[in-house]
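Quarterly update from the structural biology core.
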Amino acid sequence: MATVEVVAKRCKGCNICAALCPKKVLELDTLGKIYVKEQDACIGCGQCELRCPDYAIFVTKEESK
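Predicted structure, tokenized:
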């Protein structure tokens, strides 16, 4: 499991992260900014963080116990 954090102030709403997410964790809100829609669905692949041109997304993987 992983946690996705979005820094809305940095997001310009390009939607690259949401388009690349295999689990549809992210979505644009009514203001055109990305938000975390389905946190529990995140598999921690990190594609959103790697492809964000504005460095607005951070993925933290939780270690297995």
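The chain has a mean pLDDT of 94.
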